[in-house]
Amino acid sequence: MSGATLNVASLPTFASRWLIPRLPGFEKAHPGIGINLTARINPFDLAHERFDVAIHFGRDNWPDAQLTKFCDEEMIAVASPQFIETNGVEGPAGLLEAPLLHLQSRPGAWGDWMHEAGLGEVPALPGKQFDQFTMVIAGAAAGLGAGLVPAYLIEEELRSGVLAQVGDTALKTQNSYFIVRPLGVDNPSADAFVTWILAQV
């Protein structure tokens, strides 16, 4: 597979916060395979756009393609240590009166998380609205409020202590991440990439 090039389409946030930090490991294991990475959000015709692999988030609903599920989405509540101390947040119940950060496309996520945490049904929770998870993460790190984000997006922030998890509740959503490949295509480089990415989760 020396000199092979793999064209990969990925969700931009997934690529920047999960895939790219791990790519040096793939290149070390497979030095003969080059990766071209392009941002895509919605399903598309893999053959027409000449992508070998795509990362899809959602349901198993990409037409005319081979899908391999590699992880579910689990959302956790996080905040900066200073925010937690200032607002006296000692667990999930402490967030009921604390400023919250919301993702505009998931208006009911905090309510679902509160229910999963054993707090029952809660009324509409006010707070700042953002349209990207990266903004929610930045806002939480800046102390604007607590954010509810997929755990995989904040591995580095949790590791470094920039953010801390509030409670241990993880809300599993109805969507998952899939590796998508064209049907009927023999591609050893893509095989190697899929095997590698499955080993990362």
Description:
The chain has 201 residues and is an alpha/beta fold. The protein is 31% helix and 33% strand. It is built from seven helices and eight strands, in the order E-H-E-H-E-E-H-E-H-E-H-E-H-E-H. Helix 1 (12-29) links the parallel strand 1 and strand 2 (33-39). The longest helix has 18 residues, at 12-29. Residues 5-200 form the LysR substrate-binding domain. One of its GO terms (molecular function) is DNA-binding transcription factor activity. Belongs to the LysR transcriptional regulatory family. InterPro entries: LysR-type_TF_proteobact-type (IPR058163), LysR_subst-bd (IPR005119).
Briefly, what CATH class of the largest domain?
Answer: Alpha Beta
Unreliable segments (pLDDT under 50, ≥5 consecutive)? Answer: none
Radius of gyration: 19 Å
| Structural class by sheet pairing and helices | alpha/beta
Bin the strand percentage: 25-35%
Number of domains: 2
Averaged pLDDT: 92
CATH topology of the largest domain: D-Maltodextrin-Binding Protein, domain 2
Biggest sheet architecture? 8 strands, mixed
Family: Belongs to the LysR transcriptional regulatory family.
Domain LysR substrate-binding: 5-200
Protein name: LysR family transcriptional regulator
Pfam family, one: LysR_substrate
Any key phrases for this structure?
alpha/beta; LysR-type_TF_proteobact-type; LysR_subst-bd; 201 residues; D-Maltodextrin-Binding Protein, domain 2; eight-stranded mixed β-sheet; sequence-specific DNA binding; 31% helix; LysR family transcriptional regulator
